[in-house]
Specification:
This is Dipeptide epimerase. It is a single chain. Helix content is about 30%, strand content about 25%. By secondary structure, it is of the alpha/beta class. It folds into two domains: about 5-110, Enolase-like, N-terminal domain (Enolase-like, domain 1); about 120-320, Alpha-Beta Barrel (TIM Barrel).
Length: about 325
């Protein structure tokens, strides 16, 4: 029986506004791929990201262009060579994993030899804003064990100190989204160390981050926008201590698994992150994150409405996906 591909645009409202150094958004706009074959159905979700030149329309067109190969039965390994890394390939790759699980009756977890899946502690994101507003957000979520705080201005000291005072017991990740000027980098890293920050994510713009190799890094520094796929890793070893693996960057779980293995071999700490998407996008990442050092899979917690069925969250714990959702 032939394989059929369906592609849809979906929008899920964000609870309030999600703000980072590059701007704000009020909805999670995602693309869903559905593959059907022999009565089985596999799903995959991606989030196009303008920072990488992606739009909803361009990603839809990229998937559509690959339709003949996909419907002709392309394998996940062949897909790595047929489509470039990015959101489009992610949706197709994850749909293929899910379809294989449904056709064979063997879960993705079992195929990855993950025998004892466990719930994970995920970061919860505090949006960028004025220090008092960020402190109020942090105070509201101070009981969570891990907060991810969006920064990325030339004067983040007051924001870092305000959030730390509001959540004195939480572990805190700072995500600058490429927003720190070079002349403020060392100052902000010193403040981060004073505030007992556990990780600073992408302080300088991708491609302009050489300075990180020349200074004393007082806190672990994590690459996000600077790293997309396995081939990027070796060149980053002198300037980053950790990498953030996101399926929408790697182009799916298949590449992400290879990337994680190589990153661990090179001695990087591993963070598994996400764009703001639904439980369908988080589900494969939860499997990928089972042995990660840092987990940032709070996308559904930021939404006013998630998919049903969705992942189970209990406070900051996210539980492995049920087969009815994915995998």
């Amino acid at each position: 029986m032939p394989r059929h591909l369906d592609i849809q645009m979906n929008s899920f409202p964000i609870a309030g506004t999600f703000t980072i150094a590059r701007g704000a958004k009020t909805s999670a706009d995602v693309i869903t791929c559905t593959l059907t074959e022999a009565g089985a159905r596999g799903l995959g979700e991606c989030v196009p990201y303008r920072r990488y030149g992606e739009t909803m329309e361009s990603v839809m067109a990229q998937i559509e262009a690959a339709r003949p190969l996909i419907e002709d039965g392309i394998s996940r390994t062949e897909l790595l060579h047929a489509m470039p890394p990015g959101a489009a390939r992610n949706a197709v790759d994850c749909a293929l994993w899910d379809l294989e699980a449904k056709l064979t009756g063997k879960s993705v977890a079992s195929r990855l030899d993950l025998r004892k899946l466990k719930p994970l502690t995920t970061a919860y994101t505090i949006s960028l804003g004025e220090p008092d507003v960020m402190a109020a957000q942090a105070r509201e979520h101070a009981q969570r064990p891990l907060l991810k705080v969006k920064v990325g201005t030339d004067d983040d000291e007051s924001r870092i100190r305000a959030v730390r005072a509001a959540a004195p017991d939480a572990a805190i990740i700072l995500d600058a989204n490429e927003g720190w000027p070079e002349d403020r980098l060392e100052h902000h890293l010193r403040i981060a160390a004073e505030a007992n920050i556990v990780l600073v994510e992408q302080p300088l713009p991708a491609g302009r981050d050489d300075m990180l190799a020349e200074i004393a890094r007082h806190v672990l520094v994590c690459a996000d926008e600077s790293v997309h796929h396995t081939g990027d890793l070796a060149s980053l070893a002198d300037r980053y201590d950790a990498i953030n693996i996101k399926l929408d960057k790697t182009g799916g779980l298949t590449e992400a698994l290879e990337m994680k293995e190589e990153a661990q071999r090179l001695g990087f700490s591993i963070m598994i992150g996400c764009m703001v998407g639904t439980s369908l996008a988080m589900a494969p990442a939860v499997l990928l994150a089972q042995d990660a050092d840092f987990v940032d899979l709070d996308g559904p917690l930021l939404l006013a409405r998630d998919r049903e069925p969705g992942l189970t969250y209990a406070g900051s714990l996210v539980f492995p996906p049920e087969g009815s959702l994915w995998g």
